[in-house]
Specification:
The protein is mainly α and 210 residues long. The chain contains 7 helices and 4 strands; from the N terminus they run E-E-H-H-H-H-H-E-E-H-H. The chain folds into 2 domains: 2-52, no CATH class; 56-205, dinb family like domain (Four Helix Bundle (Hemerythrin (Met), subunit A), Up-down Bundle). The strands form 2 sheets. It has a two-stranded antiparallel ribbon with strand order 1-2. A two-stranded antiparallel ribbon has the order 3-4. Strand 3 (151-155) and strand 4 (161-165) form a beta hairpin. The longest helix is centred in the first third of the chain and has 45 residues, at 35-79. Residues 1-22 have low confidence and may be disordered.
């Protein structure tokens, strides 16, 4: 069966499936005279669209976390070239790594390991970065697309109860880390150093996110 030139049940075109969703009622009426049959058909097609969308999103998140891993390593490597790295930069990198671990612990409903602003040494940052690569890689490699819509309930560091979808948490982790890497770059420039070049598009151009 084809709807808007998209073969239902395959992942060949999310864009075409999106267009098809808007045309579902009219097309379903032409295919199925029965109202009950039309509702069933529309429900099934929308479920297919949802699954395709989640499959696409999971792959995208895996790529974003590959970028995050690379960018953190670039920052760490640059800081390791200095005899005495700027203390504020180390503090910010420690926060990035601690927060990335904390959000994974919330998703997996595990106890918080570190404070949000820990006092890591540069060697501890290196060890944490290596372990987080394995932990996030294992998590993202082991979940199913539908799990991105799952709701995670947690209590933040202010004692406030919240709930967010897994997909929103994953996006927050990536954006939060990028924000603080920008602060590290500013701190390093203020100290007279050249920061690591961690633009996403640079990683893409150099094929570092494959």
């Amino acid at each position: 069966m084809r709807i808007a030139n998209c073969k239902i049940g395959t992942a060949n075109s999310l864009c075409r499936c999106t267009c098809a969703i808007f045309a579902l009622p009219a097309r379903a009426a032409a295919i199925c005279p029965s109202a009950s049959a039309r509702r069933t058909l529309i429900h099934r097609i929308r479920n297919v669209y949802r699954d395709l969308h989640m499959m696409d999103m999971l792959g995208y998140f895996r790529r974003l976390f590959a970028y995050d891993t690379w960018a953190n390593r670039e920052v760490l490597s640059r800081l390791q070239t200095f005899g005495t790295p700027p203390s504020r930069s180390i503090q910010l990198l420690s926060h990035i790594l601690s927060a990335e671990r904390l959000w994974l612990e919330r998703i997996e409903r595990r106890k918080q390991t570190y404070p949000v602003w820990p006092d890591f040494s540069i060697m501890k940052c290196e060890a944490e970065a290596m372990e987080l690569t394995q932990l996030w890689g294992s998590y993202l490699g082991g979940i199913e697309p539908a799990q991105l819509a799952g709701i995670i309930k947690y209590t933040n560091t202010k004692g406030e109860a919240w709930s967010n979808s897994v997909s929103d948490i994953l996006m927050h982790v990536v954006m939060h880390s990028a924000y603080h890497r920008g602060q590290i770059a500013s701190d390093m420039r203020a100290a007279g150093h050249t920061p690591a070049y961690t633009d996403f598009i640079h990683g893409v151009r150099q094929r570092l996110l494959e």
